[in-house]
UniProtKB/TrEMBL annotation:
<dbReference type="GO" id="GO:0046872">
    <property type="term" value="F:metal ion binding"/>
</dbReference>
<dbReference type="InterPro" id="IPR000086">
    <property type="entry name" value="NUDIX_hydrolase_dom"/>
</dbReference>
<dbReference type="InterPro" id="IPR045121">
    <property type="entry name" value="CoAse"/>
</dbReference>
<protein>
    <recommendedName>
        <fullName>Nudix hydrolase domain-containing protein</fullName>
    </recommendedName>
</protein>
<dbReference type="InterPro" id="IPR015797">
    <property type="entry name" value="NUDIX_hydrolase-like_dom_sf"/>
</dbReference>
<keyword id="KW-0460">Magnesium</keyword>
<dbReference type="Pfam" id="PF00293">
    <property type="entry name" value="NUDIX"/>
</dbReference>
<feature type="domain" description="Nudix hydrolase">
    <location>
        <begin position="70"/>
        <end position="204"/>
    </location>
</feature>
<dbReference type="GO" id="GO:0015938">
    <property type="term" value="P:coenzyme A catabolic process"/>
</dbReference>
<dbReference type="GO" id="GO:0010945">
    <property type="term" value="F:coenzyme A diphosphatase activity"/>
</dbReference>
<keyword id="KW-0378">Hydrolase</keyword>
<keyword id="KW-0464">Manganese</keyword>
<keyword id="KW-0479">Metal-binding</keyword>
Amino acid sequence: MPNLTQRTDVTFIDREYIPTTQGQFAMLTAKLDRYWQDGGLEVLPLSKGDNQLLSADIVAKSTLAEQTSPLPDACVLVAISDEPVPRLLLTRRAVNLNSHAGEVSFVGGKRDDTDVSSLSVACREAFEEVGLYQHHISPIGYLPMQMSRSGLFVRPVVASIEQSAIEGLIANQDEIDAIFWLEFERILTPPVAYAMPRMLGVQRFTLHTPAWLGDDGAGEQVVWGLTARILANLAEIGFGKQYPWYYRLRA
């Protein structure tokens, strides 16, 4: 059933029904719909080790949300190219941003009061960030919300994008440093164990976590954190793949 929440100004449609149609993504649409028909979780629990990266307040907020099913604070578009060998649209965030600077992400962003649905949030942000028009986007389904490190509930909207739109995408340099693509089949193989330097306060650590590796044309890009967890969830619900997820901080 659609997840509807009444606000004072408008009814916000979090998840709307998407009928299964013909095409290479028909099976994926059916699998995502079945997840909700079977009573799937609206908000996924935090991954093992998240309490090392998140504040106690954010951990408590996530735990409470597992019972209350809040509205999403933000939505991302998990965009899959509709071409013979499908690819995932990813971006490298601008280094001057206040949060997640320089990291790999989907197109997407915070919900505005004027937005009427999760799909409209994801489509608006996709246009603002990379110039992707809504008429080139066909929704496939929805994934459970997950919490970002900044404490936002993020709703992933899975969609296909027309092959004809790919060459016309242009990064908004205020938000995006680069657009790149990851072969969709990559998420059907286990992520690699990856280690990266991180700062926690004034102390330097090495963070060990699963990740997929891509290339934006300027060098290797690490798909980790929330973006990778969303892809892992897509692989699990859509294709039965289960990847252990963890964050381990070592001094």
